[in-house]
Hints:
Layout: H1 2-24, E1 45-57, H2 58-66, H3 71-83, E2 88-98, E3 101-118, E4 136-155, E5 161-181, E6 184-195, E7 198-203, E8 208-211, E9 228-240
Antiparallel strand pairs: 1-2, 1-9, 3-4, 4-5, 5-6, 5-7, 8-9
Amino acid sequence: MKTSTYVIAALFLGCFPLAAQNSTERDPFVRTAVTEGSSTKATPVFASICYETFSLDLAEAAALYRQKLSDGKLYAELTARVAKSKAKQEGFAVVRTKSGQRANLESISEFQYPTEFERPSPAASGTPTHPVAPVTPSAFETRNLGFALEVEATVGEDDQTVDLRLSPQTVTLVDRVPGAQGNSPTERPVFETQRVTTSLTLISGQPRLACTPSRPPASKVDADSANRVWFSFVTADIIPVIKE
């Protein structure tokens, strides 16, 4: 009788290490959703980023900003002035991206121009009756003209906030300055650039002032550029991925 009791007790106690091992340890070669980096949310989401620019007379812009309105009220005031033709909407762009992924939007044309030139060989130096041969472009650069927007949006765990990295840029060809290489006429392009790189934390659906990327004060595109201020707003919307 005692022997049977000892055997049962040993078997009973031997179960505890196995049960404990099964409850606390995991096979390291079996991947879970967390180790793979995939989202554990029941409904996946992505971010929709809207970037808008408005311009306003310098004095009016300064007076409006000194009112210390909230970004939402400042945005509403500017859109109301646009409707009354008292302000101008300069740009509007939307780009959507998965959380944590970088996205680029471009509306550009490529402009290529020479930066180095080769002089003609001595044999082609010319005579009084034969003009000097022109120089030949030997190296070029390419500049993108237009608007480009780069964003990286990370949706917060609360599905209400978005951490946003933002880099909008506008490049305009404004002039071609004449020059010369030897006896050959050349041109040098002149560009105007409006650019900012910044990081923001946004609440879904609420517009926020991002920057004032105004034109250069002596802009050749806008003769009144020194008297106008551009306001740029960004709105991030968190969009659930659902079947409609």
